[in-house]
Amino acid sequence: MPLVVAVAVIVGGIGVVGFFWYYGSPWYTDVGYQPEQPVSYSHKLHAGDLGIDCRYCHTTVEVSPKANIPPTQTCMNCHSVVAVDSTSLLPVRESWASGKPIEWVRVNKIPDYAYFDHSVHISRGVGCASCHGQVDEMKVVSQQKPLSMGWCLSCHRNPDEHLRPLTEVTNMKWKPGPEQAAFAEKMKKELKIDPPVDCSGCHR
Asked: For the chain, which residues make up each domain, given as ranges?
């Protein structure tokens, strides 16, 4: 086979593999997913401008594998007196009157065959922003990370940059300082952080 043809075949093969590697990966298929919600809820306004802590709405995130979707009661704690005539909040008032939950559309989800525990990560100092991005800047929430096995394993193998003080896990403005490496080593030792990288860690 002439050298030119061989090179063309190799380059073409790499191009085809690269095409399917990217366009078939969660970085392309999942990141950016932004479903339309039944209520126009702005995390930028609530979590960003007003500074409402994530745990006010997602109350179980520290103690449960799942970060719950807030019930209508949580919305009405404020909106029984704030923006009571807003047309955009009509579905909230109707839900409150009828007792029928608002059907929020889930944005971030890993496959059913994989197990993820929010409380384990939160209790080890992994901040919300590590997986969900800068939610406090999103008028409409979208998926920011691929949530793929490879992406999870990269953190499990080297969690240092994602560890922060336990008091800062919901602080969207927190950034690692110059002593992050030493801090992470201290956290891993004190909290016995040794993320699993074998199959049984996430597939049970």
From this structure: 43-69+106-201, 70-103
